[in-house]
Design brief:
By secondary structure, the protein is an all-alpha fold. The protein has a domain of 154 residues: MetI-like (MetI-like fold). Helix 11 runs antiparallel to helix 12, helix 12 packs across helix 14 and helix 13 runs antiparallel to helix 14.
């Protein structure tokens, strides 16, 4: 007897059903990334236990029990039992952290408050404002007049900064660099080092790959010598040893020596980053440039370098971040950068308390983190914008 098979065909389309709760949203993300295996589950639980152990006291110190600036707040509040971070101390020393020993232009001040604080150091604040107005449109993709903007920032702006901070012209009080300090010096050293090290590193990378023996040998020697010496040694040589080799009566500004040392040191590392990008390009790119009849400099400018630099954006920005953090080493040779300003302020007995030093170092760490994190996020944005590769 033959068996009969019954079949059922649905005549109506079933409405779309939502995905299971366990595979979407926070629950799905947690199952996939935090609890996907036994080892991941153990590490997740251990991490959560560590955060539960460290976050509450850290929050209480930085926020909950902190002493905030306000009317009537004194150092006694920071010395009280159970007091946390003394942010009132940071507020009272903020001008020193930013401007160092730069003299006040008190004759500009006609009132008290925020406007008065800006006008008191109007020369430094003008440098900050003009630099921001030139840098933001230069780094903003898609905005026009990039060439004019670059000329203003890289050529005109350094001259403006020099005369505004140094003075001695147009009725401005002359201010030696020994009176510069705080965040101002940190930004100057970091910006000069970044601006100088990148083009110099590109030249050194091209020189190391040159077919001319003298150029190649000098480039290799420069890169290897500077990479083999710690930055602190370079700063000590520039600050202590260099004046001994100068003619009698001739001196070089200490800040200028630090700028040159930091820039050359960073350029050696930048050269190796760029060289890695050049070696990563396939040989066909060089042959394609040659087949178009382009000479060496045109092929490098229009074909090779744009591709090589695009590939090594993470390495370039990593060098920039390392350079910006290494600016704190100039404090060892007596230059009053942000870290040195914090260290000196920690000796101020007017705000002496058990949490004075750690509050100052937390403030310095937050400032460095803000600038380094901004550079990191900007590099990620540029990577995505310049990513022309084909991915599955």
């Amino acid at each position: 007897m033959a068996k009969k098979y019954l079949a059922y065909i649905r005549k109506e389309i079933v409405p779309e059903q939502p995905a299971p709760i366990a595979s979407k949203g926070i629950v799905g993300w947690a199952r996939q990334n935090l609890f996907s295996s036994i080892s991941n589950t153990i590490m997740t639980l251990a991490g959560m236990a560590f955060l539960l152990w460290i976050l509450p006291p850290l929050y209480n110190f930085i926020f909950g029990n902190a002493v905030w600036p306000g009317e009537g707040v004194t150092v006694e509040d920071c010395r009280a039992k159970g007091a946390g971070a003394c942010w009132a101390y940071i507020d009272s020393r903020m001008t020193f952290f930013i401007y160092g020993f730069f003299p006040k232009d008190a004759y500009w001040v006609t009132q008290e408050g925020f406007i008065a604080s800006i006008m008191t150091y109007w020369r430094v604040n003008a440098v900050f404002a003009v630099g921001t107005l030139l840098l933001v449109p230069l780094m903003w993709p898609g905005l026009p007049h990039k060439v004019l903007n670059a000329i203003l920032f890289f050529v005109v702006y350094p001259v403006f900064v020099f005369f505004m901070l140094t003075g001695g012209v147009f009725g401005l009080e002359e201010v030696p660099t020994i009176k510069w300090g705080g965040l101002t010096v940190t930004l100057i050293i970091g910006l000069v080092g970044i601006v100088v090290s990148l083009p110099l590193g590109i030249v050194l990378a091209l020189g190391r790959q040159s077919k001319m023996p003298i150029v190649k040998g000098m480039s290799i020697m420069f890169i290897e010598v500077w990479r083999a010496v710690p930055l602190i040694t370079v700063l000590f040589m520039a600050s202590v040893m260099l004046p001994l080799f100068m003619p009698v009566g001739m001196t070089i500004d200490k800040l200028l020596r630090a700028l040159v040392g930091v820039s050359l040191f960073s350029a050696a590392y930048m050269a190796e980053v760029v060289r890695g990008g050049l070696q990563a390009l396939p040989k066909g790119q060089f042959e394609a440039a040659a087949s178009l009849g382009l000479n060496y400099w045109k092929s490098m400018s229009f074909i090779i370098l744009p591709q090589a630099l695009k590939h090594v954006i993470p390495g370039i920005v990593n060098s920039f971040i390392a350079l910006f953090k290494d600016t704190s080493l100039v404090a060892i040779v007596g230059i009053f950068d942000l870290l040195r300003a914090v260290q000196i302020s920690n000796l101020n007995l007017d705000w002496g308390s058990k949490n004075q030093a750690i509050t100052g170092y937390i403030f310095a760490a937050v400032v460095f983190w803000a600038f380094c994190f901004s550079m990191s996020r900007y590099s990620i944005m540029m990577e995505k914008r310049l990513d022309t590769g084909h991915r599955n």
